[in-house]
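Sanity check. The docking grid for zinc ion depends on where the pocket ends up, so I'm generating a full predicted complex first rather than guessing from homology. Inputs follow.
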Amino acid sequence: MSPRQKYRLRARSDREVVREVEPGKQYFDAESGEPFEVVGKLIPLAPSPSSLPYAVENLRLCGCSLEQLVQRDLNDCPHCDRRLPALEG
Ligand SMILES: [Zn+2]
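Predicted complex below; grid placement will be based on this.
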């Protein structure tokens, strides 16, 4: 189990890291010394049995002719902008 949510952090120079963060704590890029800004939450959202951001169980086919794998928690396909069907179960 990985109960901690991971976030994507980005510095001004576009360097990115993925890590757990503590609220109110500032993180810095070890090489450039630039402060990191939180730019996104990674799926799977905590708590999840998987710590892999794009684990197969968190993906599904979008259903269009592009047949792209998309994250299960999205409402619209990021590749073709089609509305994704509601999840069963
Ligand atoms: Zn699509």
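Relevant for the grid: DSSP finds no helices and five strands in the chain.
Also worth noting: The chain has a mean pLDDT of 82.
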